[in-house]
Structure formats: structure tokens, C-alpha cells
């Protein structure tokens, strides 16, 4: 068939092919800006701060009103272990980190790899010793200051800490005529007695997946999981104090006097609320969790010093510090000033304590209401007795995974040999550190 | 004609190169290096050529091997169950045995429209005895959690596979169905002897997709990991790769793992297609 002398073909024209094929892409919605809040350019002096602690936003609001030239914009991120650190690592890899970030003590050494090497500007926390007031270290709990320092170089400002004590249901223990245990031997006996008197109730639950909590208990017993000597690391996750602690909990799990359960889950919260678990060896910030988990029962709860192994030492679980990634002189100074303010100003600490129940790392009197009383003295005393020689290794996220997997598996098997599982975890953690190219024994 | 063909192919080839070939090549190159941090690691670091050392580490890694084994077990059970269910549903829909077939088709497909993360969270709540009475025990604990994941995956994708099979059934010539009816075959016999054999190519297709999907399983275990300790960091190969790179900060090792996983996926798909070629050439 011809039209005006030229053949009309039925073959698709090549010129039409390309635009037709691209049509679906033109119709696709434009993607949102990769960094959600960067849709509008931030004000020149605005510092970004990645944090997940409730109350930080309120504290930053106070700072912003008084320092309009150095405003801080808080970006709430997922808690580190659940993905916040992965996001931070990605940002560092991309060379575009926030000016400030919240990092927990145990993970800090992992972010300090290469910090003394130079040439990694913007990818490691800034060194802050010249930017903080003189004598800064004396304002904080000694062990917390040791966590943020490498020698006399300071890489973060401690914000809070988690000295451990025993939170317990005063009314339940009284009803069953059980004295508050002062030693772990008494605790073991009390757990058995309680189970006999009321089979529906457990004295406590053991969370094998919370390696930080297990570490805190081992810390109290005198354990030191990582040592640095002779220019290399040695991993001692299964040293004698740790084995002693895990043997105790393993015995209680096997006897059924303690239940093995993941903490901070719905099941765990329900148990606390309904009085099926009546005691919790908890860090100071756990008081806020009990308040939210068991609001009607909060006045029945009380706090006592953690049962001891016969020594006066205490353990810590949790706590974070603020690191500065800003590199330029003015931004770095402003960021350091904010970090210092966040950790020491009473209004900042009050806002964070109110929303997150944090126990500040800064020394001083900060009321901590719990169960109708002030829990601060108990936790403050514990904080004074935390061993400052406990150090974290260079690959703690991996190590916590290894420990959690090993203990989780052991707790689920009938034999519940928790101490033995730590030896396997120890070897894997050492291999992990070696995989980073670091020297380890 | 040739220009037209290239015109249609170019966008696909460009995107294929950009989003598949390039990243794979990048991962391949990265997997040949490793980081060295002498001493305690706080000093300067260097990236050195490691040849096949990362691959040796991956092959020796018990976590990676057990993750692959776990996925194999899951796939061997979950894929036949899901495809069997999808085939039954597709045959039912095609036979028009239900009224308002359209609504059933939509209903079966609805779970596929639920974002993966939401689906996992929904099921995670249903699995907890304290919350949902039909859960007879903690279904997120070790003996059950793999089956729990398989259940979620089946729920999510059975509708998708049903849709593919229904479409394939609609390509069955009606003359064959009528001939079978004329020969005295009832709906069951028709389904078994006429429709099902003609469904083989579509079944191979959905099975291949499912194999690839199972090997890449990530979001279900990743979300469950935040809820239950029964899901470890290396529960599935893809989760292991993700954690190696973004939690453990070992991008070179993770790249080697990813390349190996891609190779395994590729080999398994090719092998499966080869093995079923004659069977599906009905």
C-alpha cells in the first residue's frame, strides 16, 4: 500500500522505539531527596546531631534559643545496634557524616580505628582535648572518662552511664517473706524459694541476646573481656569471673527458677507488668523502662544494690557519649561546645532524664524518681565502684553478635552450658578482630 | 528493523550495565583487597591486595555455610508447598468454581501488596502467645522460627505465583477443555490431566523465581532479628553479607560473600532450568 507515492511500512520506526521504551521511566514518580531534611539548604551555622535518646531534642531546643548562631538540628535515628551504626558507617564511608553523633561506649573503639593515624579526616571522631574546658575529665565519672580517651587524647564527651542495681517488686517479695538478696548466693536461693511458693512467678529473666547486659554482670564480678598489652589485643571473654557469673545463671535456668527471655520485647514487658517476673538486675536507665512497662505498678517497685560476689565492685550496662565529626575550625568548636553543654548543663540533663531516664555521667546530684523514692544514691554509689580498667574491643558489634548467638543457642538447649559457650565465642571474636587486620593474641 | 531492536534494547542494556554489571564488577574488585591495621588498630590503616584470601575466608566460614544450608532446607520445603498451593488456587480460579472470582483473585494477591517489613511485623505479633491466643507456644523460638519465616514468605508470595499460573492457564486453548469435557472428563480430571501438564512451563518459571528469591531472603529475617534472639546475624546468606559490611565494617569480606552468593544463585538457576527442560517442554 502506498500513500502519496511512498510505501507505508508496518515496521516500527527506529526513531519511535527509543522514546517508547523510555516512557515508563518518565511516568515514574520522582524519588524523594535522599536525605529527607536536606530538601532546603540548612542555615550556614546549623549543626546536625544524630541521636536516639529521647529528650535530646528538647535539650537542643534550649541550646538553640541561647545560641542562635550555632543552632543544632537533632535527627532521630534508629538505636545504634538496630541500624543506627550501620547508617553512621555508611555516612562516614560516603564522607558525609553528621557534625555530631551519639555513640555508645562499647562501640566507640570501633569508630576510633585509625583515629591516631591522621589522614582520615572526617571519618573518625575529632580529638577534643583542646576544645573542652581545662580539667574536663574531673567533671565526669572516672571510668566513663577512661572510656572516651586514648591516653591523654579525648575523642568523645560522656553523656550518661548505666550503673547496675537490682530493681524489684517490694510487695511480691514481702508477700512471700523473701528478703532482698544481698549476694548472688542469696539471689539463687531466693529464686528457688519464690518458684516454690508461687510457680507462676520467676524471680528474674535472663536475656542471652543482650551481650551488654551480660557484660555488665561480668564486669561487676571483676571480668575484663579485652586487654591491651604488648601492642596487641587479647580477648578474654571466658575469664574466671565471667565463667562464675554464667555458671550461676546457667544453674538457675536449668533449675527453672529463672526464665530465659529476650528483654525489651512485648512478652518481657507483659511479664513485668503482670508481675510474672519480679526482679531485674538493671542499669539506671532501666527505671524509665519499668515506669513505661508497668505504669500501674510502679509504686510497688524499689531499688537495691545489686547482689555482690563478696567484693565492692559494680558493673555498668550502657551509656553513650557524643562524638564530633565536624572538621572545619568554627564548626568543630561549636560542635564541641554543644557536646560539652549537652553533658553538663543541668537543664539539658534534666530534659534527658525526664524523657529517657538517663543517669548522667557528669558527677553531681540528679534526682531519679523511681517507685516513689529517689533512686539516685544507690546508682551513684554503684557508679563510684565501677572498675575503670574494663575496656571494650575494636569490633564490639561483631563481638556482641557472637556472644548473643553463642549464649542464645546455649540457653535454648537443655544443658544450658553458658560458660562453655563463651569459649567458642571468644575464639570467634578473636578471629573477627584479626579479620580487620588488627594484631590479636 | 535492527535499529528498532537496538532502540528498544538500549534502555534495558544501559540500566542492566549500570545496576547489575557495574556493581558486580565493583564488588569483584573490592573482594580482592583487605584492610590492614597493625598494632591495636588505632594507628594508620592501609588497603592491601589480598588476592583470594577473602574467598578462602568465606568458604571456611561456618556461618556462611550454615546459612546456605538453612536456606536450602527452607527452599526444599517452602517452594513446593507454596507452588502447590498456588497451583491449586489457580486451578480453582480458572474453573470459575467460586462466584465473584475477581474478588478471590484480588484477595489472594493482596498479601503481595503488603510491604515486606509490615508483613513480618504483622506475623511477629501473631506469633507471640502473650498477644495472640492461637499461638500455642513461642513460634519465634528456635525449633519453629524457620518454619515461621517460611510461613510468612508463603503468605506473601502465593498470590503472586497464583496470578502467574492463572495467566498461564488462560492461555490453554478452550478447545482442549471442551474436547476433554466431550470425552466425559469432570472438572477434577480435566484439571489433573489437561491443565496441569500444560502448566509446567509456568511452574518452572515460578519455581526459578522462588529459588532465586529464597537465596536472597533478607527482609524477613532482618526484621525478626530485632524482635527475637533466635535469628542470628548470619541467619541467611544475604543477611550475613549485610551485617558483614554494615555492622562489622568489613566491606571487602562482604563483597567476596556477595560475589559467591551471586555465583551460587546463578549456578542453581541454570542447573534447575537444565534439569527441568525436558519435563517442561510439554
Automatic annotation (TrEMBL), chain A:
Keywords: Cell membrane, Lipoprotein, Membrane, Palmitate, Signal
Phylogenetic classification of the source organism: Bacteria, Bacillati, Actinomycetota, Actinomycetes, Streptosporangiales
Pfam families registered for this protein in UniProt: SBP_bac_8 (PF13416)
TM region positions: none
Signal sequence annotation: 1-27
Official protein name in the record: Extracellular solute-binding protein
Entries under PANTHER family matching the protein: ARABINOSE-BINDING PROTEIN-RELATED, POLYGALACTURONAN_RHAMNOGALACTURONAN-BINDING PROTEIN YTCQ
TrEMBL record, chain B:
A Pfam family it matches: BPD_transp_1
Coiled-coil residue spans: none
Subcellular location: Cell membrane
Topology with respect to the bilayer: Multi-pass membrane protein
Keyword hit for Acyltransferase: no
SUPFAM superfamilies linked: MetI-like (SSF161098)
InterPro entries listed in its UniProt record: MetI-like, MetI-like_sf, UgpAE/MalFG_permease
Superkingdom of the source species: Bacteria
One GO term of the biological process aspect: transmembrane transport
Record bears the keyword Amino-acid biosynthesis: no
Main location class: membrane
Designated name of the protein: Sugar ABC transporter permease
Originating species: Bailinhaonella thermotolerans
Source organism phylogeny: Bacteria, Bacillati, Actinomycetota, Actinomycetes, Streptosporangiales
Amino acid at each position: 500500500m502506498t500513500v502519496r507515492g511512498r510505501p507505508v511500512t508496518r515496521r516500527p520506526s527506529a526513531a519511535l522505539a527509543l522514546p517508547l521504551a523510555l516512557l515508563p521511566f518518565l511516568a515514574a514518580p520522582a524519588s524523594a531527596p535522599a536525605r529527607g531534611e536536606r530538601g532546603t539548604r540548612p542555615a550556614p551555622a546549623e549543626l546536625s546531631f544524630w541521636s536516639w535518646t529521647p529528650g535530646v531534642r528538647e535539650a537542643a531546643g534550649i541550646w538553640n534559643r541561647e545560641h542562635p548562631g550555632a543552632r543544632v538540628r537533632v535527627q532521630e535515628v534508629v538505636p545504634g545496634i538496630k541500624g543506627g551504626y550501620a547508617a553512621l558507617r555508611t555516612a562516614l564511608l560516603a564522607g558525609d557524616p553528621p557534625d555530631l553523633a551519639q555513640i555508645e561506649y562499647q562501640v566507640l573503639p570501633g569508630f576510633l580505628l585509625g583515629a591516631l593515624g591522621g589522614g582520615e579526616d572526617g571519618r573518625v571522631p575529632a580529638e577534643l582535648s583542646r576544645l573542652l574546658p581545662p580539667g574536663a575529665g574531673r567533671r565526669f565519672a572516672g571510668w566513663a572518662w577512661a572510656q572516651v580517651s586514648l591516653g591523654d587524647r579525648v575523642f568523645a564527651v560522656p553523656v550518661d552511664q548505666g550503673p547496675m542495681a537490682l530493681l524489684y517488686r517490694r510487695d511480691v517479695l514481702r508477700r512471700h517473706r523473701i528478703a532482698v538478696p544481698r549476694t548472688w548466693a542469696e539471689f539463687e536461693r531466693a529464686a528457688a524459694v519464690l518458684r516454690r511458693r508461687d510457680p507462676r512467678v520467676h524471680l528474674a529473666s535472663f536475656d542471652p541476646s543482650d551481650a551488654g547486659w551480660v557484660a555488665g554482670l561480668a564486669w561487676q564480678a571483676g571480668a575484663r573481656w579485652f586487654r591491651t598489652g604488648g601492642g596487641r589485643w587479647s580477648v578474654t571473654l571466658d575469664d574466671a569471673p565471667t565463667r562464675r557469673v554464667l555458671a550461676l545463671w546457667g544453674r538457675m535456668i536449668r533449675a527453672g527458677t529463672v526464665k530465659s527471655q529476650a528483654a525489651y520485647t512485648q512478652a518481657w514487658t507483659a511479664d513485668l507488668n503482670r508481675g510474672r517476673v519480679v526482679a531485674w538486675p538493671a542499669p539506671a536507665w532501666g527505671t524509665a523502662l519499668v515506669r513505661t512497662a508497668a505504669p500501674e505498678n510502679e509504686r510497688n517497685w524499689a531499688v537495691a544494690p545489686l547482689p555482690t560476689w563478696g567484693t565492692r565492685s559494680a558493673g555498668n550496662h550502657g551509656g553513650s557519649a557524643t562524638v564530633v565529626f565536624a572538621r572545619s575550625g568554627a564548626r568543630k568548636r561549636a560542635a564541641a561546645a554543644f557536646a560539652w553543654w549537652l553533658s553538663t548543663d543541668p537543664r539539658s540533663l534534666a530534659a534527658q532524664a525526664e524523657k529517657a531516664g538517663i543517669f548522667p555521667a557528669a558527677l553531681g546530684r540528679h534526682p531519679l524518681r523511681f517507685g516513689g523514692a529517689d533512686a539516685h544514691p544507690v546508682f551513684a554509689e554503684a557508679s563510684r565502684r565501677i572498675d575503670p580498667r574494663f575496656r571494650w574491643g575494636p569490633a564490639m558489634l561483631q563481638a556482641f553478635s557472637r556472644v548473643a548467638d553463642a549464649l542464645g543457642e546455649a540457653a535454648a538447649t537443655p544443658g544450658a552450658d553458658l560458660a562453655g559457650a563463651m569459649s567458642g565465642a571468644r575464639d570467634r571474636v578473636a578471629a573477627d578482630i584479626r579479620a580487620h587486620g588488627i594484631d590479636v593474641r | 528493523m535492527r535499529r528498532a531492536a537496538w532502540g528498544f534494547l538500549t534502555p534495558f542494556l544501559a540500566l542492566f550495565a549500570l545496576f547489575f554489571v557495574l556493581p558486580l564488577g565493583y564488588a569483584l574488585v573490592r573482594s580482592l583487597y583487605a584492610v590492614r591495621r597493625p598494632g591495636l588498630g588505632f594507628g594508620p590503616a592501609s588497603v592491601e591486595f589480598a588476592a583470594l584470601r577473602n574467598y578462602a575466608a568465606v568458604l571456611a566460614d561456618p556461618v556462611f555455610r550454615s546459612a546456605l544450608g538453612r536456606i536450602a532446607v527452607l527452599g526444599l520445603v517452602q517452594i513446593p508447598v507454596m507452588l502447590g498451593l498456588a497451583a491449586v488456587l489457580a486451578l480453582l480460579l480458572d474453573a470459575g468454581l467460586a462466584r465473584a472470582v475477581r474478588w478471590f483473585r484480588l484477595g489472594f494477591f493482596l498479601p503481595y501488596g503488603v510491604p515486606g517489613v509490615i508483613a513480618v511485623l504483622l506475623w511477629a505479633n501473631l506469633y507471640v502467645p502473650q498477644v495472640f491466643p492461637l499461638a500455642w507456644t513461642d513460634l519465634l523460638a528456635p525449633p519453629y522460627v524457620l518454619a515461621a519465616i517460611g510461613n510468612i514468605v508463603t503468605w506473601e508470595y502465593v498470590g503472586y505465583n497464583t496470578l502467574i499460573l492463572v495467566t498461564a492457564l488462560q492461555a490453554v486453548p478452550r478447545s482442549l477443555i471442551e474436547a476433554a469435557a466431550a470425552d466425559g472428563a469432570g472438572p477434577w480430571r480435566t484439571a489433573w490431566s489437561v491443565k496441569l501438564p500444560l502448566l509446567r512451563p509456568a511452574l518452572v518459571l515460578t519455581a526459578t523465581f522462588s529459588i532465586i528469591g529464597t537465596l536472597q531472603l533478607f527482609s524477613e529475617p532482618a526484621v525478626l532479628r530485632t524482635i527475637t534472639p533466635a535469628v542470628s546475624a548470619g541467619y541467611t546468606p544475604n543477611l550475613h553479607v549485610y551485617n558483614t559490611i554494615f555492622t562489622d565494617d568489613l566491606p571487602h569480606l562482604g563483597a567476596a560473600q556477595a560475589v559467591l552468593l551471586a555465583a551460587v544463585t546463578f549456578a542453581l538457576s541454570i542447573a534447575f532450568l537444565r534439569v527441568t527442560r525436558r519435563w517442561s517442554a510439554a
